């Protein structure tokens, strides 16, 4: 080998090593352990809706967008969004409820025949009727209880917000209402916002809600990702930009990238020795297509998208934030770490394709990432955990 070729090879090797070192903070790579959904709709599941007092096929159409945690008995527990067969045949046109499924291997699930969190004749009815409850993220609190953030969808009013609920057994939930209602004298009571995930850290074999600087932290939002803090995991206050006195923007759309439409919070972020790793969902720009979902009224989607990804498709990216300052972005992937590739991820209710991640759980020395496929099914991907 000539000296010149040797130098070029050495330079290329060093460049690859430097690139790998720069990305060593990433969780993954994620691969599919099974080439099929792990949770599908069940048209036979029926429960009596507490509002109408009528039997409802509550998961007849779609089961998707799952949260995940470790159950009290050590099994994996998945809270998944289920849509009934009511309403309009359009995205967001049905009523959603949250079902519970458990697994001893992360791949094969046993689920309850009735939902565990749903709209009812309670104090949250005005926030949740008739669209229901959607898109959960769940964390375990230091005291062993569980906290879920979810979308409250008052479809008839076209309004939505992040709701907070707690439980000790994942089956019986207490609703606490919108996350920001008590913040700053009620300033955010009319704000429409969705998608929230609470910072966690690995303790033993579980992810537990983590405190930094004496507070809990929550990344929230679609279109732009922001930050909030809490002392009790129930009442949250947005972190403000001192220049504008508005909630501080941490991530926004990027032209020519997989998140050119917008970024949206994914599963609960993880505190690692490198910093805070946030997996986030990213919509590729699609300036020509109109989404029928009332909630997707974004003026973003005007930036040029990534031509290698289908217009409007949702994939998964990762971002690294400082543990010293959770609002400080340190790094961000230029390419998705997981994206729609299989037929069940690119056909269904959302035909542009989605791998919409909301559940991340450590289990048997692996990360299990649970995601919604085309707004229709629940899929899973796994990755080895770094030692």
The biggest sheet, with number of strands, parallel, antiparallel or mixed sense and barrel status, is: 7 strands, mixed
The CATH topology name reads Tachylectin-2, Chain A
CATH architecture: 5 Propeller
What's the rounded overall pLDDT mean?
91
Describe the structure.
Helix content is 7%, strand content 37%. With 387 residues, the protein is mainly beta. The longest helix has 20 residues, at 3-22. The radius of gyration is 20 Å and the shape is globular. The two termini are 38 Å apart. The model is unreliable at 1-21 and 288-300 (pLDDT under 50).
Brief write-up:
With about 375 residues, the chain is mainly beta.
Give the arrangement of secondary structure elements.
Layout: H1 3-22, E1 47-48, E2 55-56, E3 62-70, E4 76-83, E5 96-103, E6 110-111, H2 125-128, E7 132-140, E8 146-154, E9 159-167, E10 174-178, E11 196-198, E12 200-203, E13 206-209, E14 211-212, E15 215-220, E16 226-230, E17 237-238, E18 262-265, E19 270-272, E20 275-283, E21 314-321, E22 329-332, H3 343-346, E23 355-363, E24 366-373, E25 377-384
Parallel strand pairs: 12-19
Antiparallel strand pairs: 1-2, 3-4, 4-5, 5-6, 7-8, 8-9, 9-10, 11-15, 12-13, 14-15, 15-16, 16-17, 18-20, 19-20, 20-21, 21-22, 23-24, 24-25
